[in-house]
Design goal:
The protein is mainly alpha-helical. It is about 75% helix and about 0% strand. Helix 3 runs antiparallel to helix 11, helix 6 runs antiparallel to helix 9 and helix 6 packs across helix 11.
Length: about 425
């Protein structure tokens, strides 16, 4: 009888592992396909020639797509965990949601952490060096020579980073045990290095999010059609058409020797055409789009920004006056044991909306900074080097988002205590989800 119970338990464990692996694969496949079409939308079309460089670009494209899919998964995991917790509380005995358990959530977090390390320290450096490589002098040119040069550069980069971290640890903490622990790459070095990068991502989020919150109104104002109050669009379009014709005549009348004036007039003509396109779009927009959508979106942005600032302010006050409000990391109700909000499902939905709004604001703020302004991708005109830079930046921001949200008090999810099925999950090596 005990043997049958043991076999039944092993079969159940096997089927649960197969189910979780299948779900993880399907979710990642969907994210990969979406990420591929997003990158293809911005990738420069001139890089698609059939030669050696085209093969290199294609490999870098696949690696960048993988990284972007991992970034999207890291962003979606926190809302997925919150909504899964509420579903498990609402339907604890439902047969059709038995696959949604603590073991699956922990497995997804562990995979996201593992793939984030893989993309950040292996795939993206390999894609960049592979894109810039030409092969060592004296060797036969080709893909193999470029791969060899890329691998050598990766080894040198790994030794450089290992040396810098080892020296920094020796300067900060002179304990011999701490310096010797850096020799253990898997258990200490990689988690320590990833924690440092997550800290940099949190600092970058703290810098970008306020800028993004203030820029969201401007960005949405550019995307939406503003109400036409006391404006005559027909007259403006007529004036801008006359100006366009005048610039076109001046441009046709100039000789080819006046290169500077021609370039200046072409730029001015392009600006006039862009303004004319915007005016025509405003004219074609319906009354509902002009008078209802724009005010509703602006009011919604104002409400979301106010709620975010209010929650952060309340959390800071709680941290100042109540030490029990500090994030405990490994303590908490876990998945499926208690609701994360006093308002139940509505409160959880509000948390998810605020988390997405925080991420979008941080991305907008990132591209609004002067130093990162050149990273903005352009449709059908973005080089692979710039795509790699964008994927790395988004990966760093998305990896720091859960820790940032937890620190600011936007969610109270704990992933250390599992639900009724979490005993089958294995703990993460780098403790990425423990920070939550």
């Amino acid at each position: 009888m005990e043997g049958q119970d043991e076999v039944s338990a092993r079969e159940q464990h096997f089927h649960s592992q197969v189910r979780e692996s299948t779900i993880c694969f399907l979710l990642f496949a969907i994210l990969y396909i979406v990420s591929y079409f997003i990158i293809r939308r911005y990738k420069r079309k001139s890089d698609e020639q059939e030669d050696e460089d085209a093969i290199v670009n294609r490999i870098s494209l696949f690696l960048s797509t993988f990284t972007l899919a991992v970034s999207a998964g890291a962003v979606l995991l926190l809302p997925f965990s919150i909504i899964s917790n509420e579903i498990l509380l609402s339907f604890p005995q439902n047969y059709y949601i038995q696959w949604l358990n603590g073991s699956l959530i922990h497995g997804l977090w562990n995979l996201a952490s593992l793939f984030s390390n893989l993309c950040l320290f292996v795939l993206m450096p390999f894609a960049f060096f592979f894109l810039e490589s030409e092969g060592f002098a004296g060797l036969k040119k080709g893909i193999r020579a470029r791969i060899l040069e890329t691998l050598v550069m990766l080894v040198l980069l790994a030794l450089l980073i290992l040396g810098i971290v080892w020296v920094a640890s020796a300067l900060i903490d002179k304990d011999a045990a701490s310096m010797e622990s850096l020799y253990d790459l898997w258990e200490f070095y990689l988690p320590y290095l990833y924690s440092c990068i997550s800290l940099m991502g949190c600092l970058l989020l703290l810098l970008c999010t306020p800028v993004g919150l203030s820029r969201m109104f401007t960005v949405m104002g550019q995307l939406l059609v503003k109400p036409t109050i006391l404006e005559d669009l027909d007259e403006q379009i007529y004036i801008i058409t006359l100006e366009e014709e005048a610039l076109q005549r001046r441009l046709n009348g100039l000789s080819s020797s006046v290169e500077y004036n021609i370039m200046e007039l072409e730029q001015e003509l392009e600006n006039v055409k862009t303004l004319k396109t915007k005016l025509e779009r405003r004219k074609k927009a319906s009354a509902w789009e002009r008078n209802l959508v724009y005010p509703a979106v602006m009011v919604l942005l104002l409400i979301e920004t106010s709620i975010s600032v209010l929650l952060v302010a309340c959390n800071i006050l709680c941290l100042l006056v109540d030490e029990t409000a500090m994030p405990k990391g490994t303590r908490g109700p876990g998945i499926g044991n208690a609701s994360l909000s006093a308002f139940g499902f509505v409160g959880a939905a509000l948390e998810i909306i605020l988390i997405f709004y925080l991420m979008v604001s941080s991305v907008v703020g990132f591209y609004s900074l002067r130093f990162f302004g050149n990273f903005i991708p352009k449709k059908d005109d973005t080089t692979m080097t710039k795509i790699i830079g964008n994927c790395v930046s988004i990966l760093v921001l998305s990896s720091a988002l859960p820790v940032m949200s937890r620190t600011l008090g936007l969610h109270k999810l704990h992933l250390s205590d599992t639900s009724r099925d979490s005993e089958t999950s294995k703990p993460s090596a780098n403790g990425h989800h423990k920070a939550l």
